[in-house]
Write a structure and sequence with these properties.
The complex is a heterodimer of chains A (261) and B (227).
Chain A lengths: L1 H44 L12 H4 L2 H27 L4 H6 L6 H36 L11 H6 L11 H53 L5 H30 L3
Helix pairs in contact in A: 1-3, 1-5, 3-5, 3-7, 5-7, 7-8
Chain B lengths: L1 E10 L2 E11 L4 E6 L5 H8 L6 E6 L2 E2 L8 E4 L11 H11 L5 H10 L13 H14 L4 E5 L7 H11 L8 E6 L2 H4 L5 E6 L2 E7 H8 L3 H9 L1
Parallel strand pairs in B: 3-8, 3-9, 6-7, 7-8
Antiparallel strand pairs in B: 1-2, 1-4, 4-5, 9-10
Helix pairs in contact in B: 3-4
The chains are: A mainly alpha (261), B alpha/beta (227).
Amino acid sequence: MNFLQLLFIEFNRMKWFLLMLVIVVFGAQFFLSMITPGRLVRDIQLDRISAYETYNFSIVLASDYYLFTVLIPTIVIFVYVAIIWYRDWLGKGTYMQRLLTLPIRRMIIFYAKLTTIVLVALLFIALHSLLLPLQQLTFAAMLPDQFYSGNANVITLIQMSFLEVFYWHNLIDFIYVFLISITLISLMFTGVLIERAYRYVGLVMNASIVIVLFVLYIQLIEASMSFYSHEMMWMISGIIVILLTVSLVVSSLLLTKRMSA
Amino acid sequence: MIELKNVTKRYGRKRVMNDISFTVDAGEITCLIGLNGAGKTTLLKAIMNLTPSQGRITVDGKKVTSKTYQDMVFVPDVLPMPRNMSIQECLDFMNHFYKKWDEKAANELLQFFQLKKEERLRGLSKGYLMRVNLLLGIASGCKYLLMDEPLSGIDILTRERISELLTSEYVDKKAILFTTHEIAEIETIIDRAVFMKDGMIVSDYYVETLREQEQKSLLDKMREVYV
């Protein structure tokens, strides 16, 4: 219950910001779905593209602008990973003093913030998957029938575009992506806590950790040429579990023994 | 009882708390007095485990853990709640986490401090934020109340209200440890004055003893210690 209460407060604090982001991102995507048909027709009239071919929604997904609308929330969520902690230290209220002195295990604060970030990311993916068919319908409604090749299967549209990165094909895939995301966020949280505990020295420690992780990543890429894909998957899963465990243990120690507010 | 034994804290080479040992007893109002940078706030934070320190700090004979916070609450100089919350939301928040939350005291203190539940924190002045801060601390039901500069930078009316509160039944059986610069106003309120200088406790007096035996006021003693 304590966890849910903190989770509720995290969402309550960001609700207007989240709503604004949803409106901007999905508004921009619908806007692109509306104006792309007009551009297509103009290009056909100017003989820039063939008038004898037909087009579908994948042309919108392939545009740089659409990529941009997906990159914005991705970057914002990554930045928010840091903001979700720092605003509690640096904000007007020094809310961190209250959080750290609540009669609960301090790691509950960590889990509540981690869950907030994961849920926000899942919310965007869920909303996008729901709105994608509507965006396709908007595109179809704005494009003259003779140029429209018909509605494509949403899954096919996703698989044929960069969006594939954000979606998964089966449960194993989902668990895999989910674990990687949680580990990444957890490591970033640990980085914030290291900086908060050791300040300038913490920044140096964080830079060292980033270098080690980068070397590990390069080694994995090189290893992928010598191992089968299922062997690589097990290897990466093992590394992820180790990293996540280390991140949680270190964060717990920092929160209980080294934190200042 | 809160007990500190040889508590030390360093920032680099500088010692901001130097071998501090003392106790805070139930039913007493203890005031930490000192000039800026004496280490008063750091000491409160060390007790609350809000800053790492060396030495031994116990509350009722046990080390400070998350369970200790059911009995010990911190009232910092700035209300530590998000400013988008309303007073009602703050009360609900504290009620959720503190098992001994005193709803009756909370409602009475709302009236005493002339606060409206529906008001948002961002619309309140510093004085009113301190009123909310104290309300949350006292109604938490904790027996140890640690307050950092509750009288600084606020209007005279709020100061009067807070002084009145500190002599009321709400804090009767609580142990209160607070820091202040406002010596004149607290002289009649506190039981004990602990003077700090350069991270050390330089003297520790019961105010009544000071008055009766040495015939000195707190201000006289402060001049003696610091000038």
